[in-house]
Amino acid sequence: MPSSQFTEFFNGAKATIPMVIGAIPFGIIFGTLAEPSGLSVWGAMAMSLFVYAGSSQFIAVGLLATGVGPIIIIATTFVVNLRHLLYATALVDKVIHLSQGWRALLAFGLTDESFTVVNSRYLGRTDTVHAHWFFLGSIVAMYSNWQFCTWLGIGLGELFPNMTNWGLDFAMSVTFLGIIIPYLRNKPMWLAVISAAAFAMVLQHLPNQLGLVISALAGIAIGYASQQIEIRLRLHKANSNVIKATIAGTASTRKIDASSMNGNREKAKP
Amino acid sequence: MNETMMIAGMAFVTFGVRYMMFAMAGRIRFALWFKQALAYVPPVVLSAIIAPLVLMPQGYIDLSLDNPYFWAALVAAGVGFWRQHLLTTIVVGLVCFVLLKWIMV
Q: Is the ipTM reported for this complex over the cut 0.85?
């Protein structure tokens, strides 16, 4: 690995440290939750190794505990992880020059956390020839930590069976909160986030995380609709300003015409 | 067996969603409205996940002093908007949560 690639890799891992810290308690709580919810030790570890998607693993364990079947759990995983399609769409131009092997590797590690870190590496920068090493560094940091914490959680869960009541799940909430904040830059985004939260609370008791799906769709629809309304209002304002300006403009040209004509007349005087 | 199938299915759909765009790089074009709507997905899904966890940990809306999730999240959000720094937000939120939990016990 040439030094520039190593530097990128190292910087990627380093930039992911805040996310790793948030994921430590979150990974541990996932490990501790596995056994009480009916997942085997092997199953919990396999989920972290192969699915590698914290929030949906967390939700899957919750569903499993209430006796929901595998098909619904897989469908819920799909819906919850659909947001990664956006992450991939945002980064697709950055991986277009890479081999399918590289692309598959980077896609596998495309979590909320790594996306947030990697996206800010690419934003407004042109020196991105080796930036996929940065991406890989972020993934390796996040992935190895996630495996370690799952394993630790499984062990601790056996030692302290009441650990599930310690509230370690707050680590997931605060990490997601930290990820949401930079998005809140305009009114449609605020509206979308607040309405999704409100829907999620009202519909919390619907079975099979149906409330989550409906809330997400409602939030997206409300955000998109208010964005369209905002755009149209702005266009309307701009248009009426143009009309006003045109009217004012013709009036003033008339004045200028009149005054210049007067001037001409005055000049014309002998 | 049931468990293996479930984990395999979860891994398949998760990787599928993450890999689809990368695999077809340059060969898929989305309509403008779809792209605009997609921009709302991450914050919306994340807030729909955490709102019930933070605001109604016992299953009902609880904004009392007995709900450390709410107060710690409020402090973390305040710090997040003020400092615009992720690590600070997460650490302050976690410390605040542990302190509140500890005071209450």
A: yes
